[in-house]
Amino acid sequence: MMGLWIAGALATVLVLALLFRPFLLKSSGSGISRRQLNAAIYRDQLARLERDRVDNMLAEADYAQARDELQRRVIEDTRDEDATVTARAPRKTMLAVGLALPAVALGLYVLLGNPGAVLEPSGPQHQVTPQDMERLVAGLAQKLEQDPSNLQGWAMLARSYKMLGRNMEAELAFERAGSYLDNDAQLLAVYADLAATNANGNFAGKPTQLIQKALKVDPENPMALWLAGTAAFRAQQYDAAIRIWERLMQQLEPDSEDATMLQESIGAAYAALGKSAPKASSAGKASAAPAPATGASVSGKVDLAPALKSKAAPGDTVMVIARAPGSRMPVAVVRARVSDLPLAFTLDDSLAMSPQARISQASQVDVEARISKSGMAQPEPGDLMSAVQTVKVGATGVTLQVNAVRP
Fold first, then answer.
1. Domain count of the fold of the chain
2. What are residue 323's phi and psi, to 5 degrees?
3. Which of 20, 59, 120, 365 has its CA 20 to 30 A from that of 375?
4. Which domain holds residue 165?
């Protein structure tokens, strides 16, 4: 706020300096009289007449008439009283303007402006509503129907539809974007993700072709690598999924939430192979498993609601996850199969995904259970879920019932 007032004061000083510049730059003295100014003007005009006569640009008769007219005007002006100074600095007026201008400006701002905005710069602003977005997207779609050759516009429309959750329309718009996508790995990956989503998670055919095309453009594109690993995992090519995801792991910030989630997916691929994933940090370096702290655990039982038993196969993956409240990063994860339900679980530091995120470091955790057909760490539509319970670390007898379907 102080900076704003200083800027306003400097602007006022600058305006006043520009207004008074003719007077401030005038040399000191008694000033120049009107008679002196007129005499100088007349001398200049007479000299100009003389030059025109010498250069034969003015006839003698015209020269004499013009000279007589000038002399007459000089005589008339000399009769006027020569008591006023025409260029003297009006000190009283300057002082009055210098005081009045800032006061008037401040008064008008208080009366017509919004002084509260200076104290509350982050006041309420207009928010774009879903209805506004729908209207904008509808307008873009209408323009593209009139100009279907605008391939960049179709790509923009596709991403807009995806943002609005209109996945089928988004995929159709990507199709019409055509060759505009050919050299953009990220757009190709988004297109592949949409195609797989619209095919109920099936990556065969079009989604896989788009992923391969994206990786040909940019072999290290993170989204394309994630999707390629997911496609391999869904096709039960677990070794390939591990190799692809480990390439992606090298791009992620060590011990970040994304790295931890990806490490969990890699662990799921190892589990599907009947192997134990090597204990590693998200940077890919081996590290010893943290020793459980005394009392730093949460234990209980998880079961599947009878109404949902028909939606789960015996080999589907059951995950019991504990997170610090407000965080996506798990502090402990238990994996099992639906055939193991009902399942008794204990979440402790030995089940941490990262040494930097352990259950012993929290006073309370959010605990939930999820059943996934793909075994992926990232929640997906169709997963079966329990309600999230917030419990103190050290709690026992926690009961989780999987009784809802993720939309």
1. 3
2. -135, 150
3. 365
4. 130-272
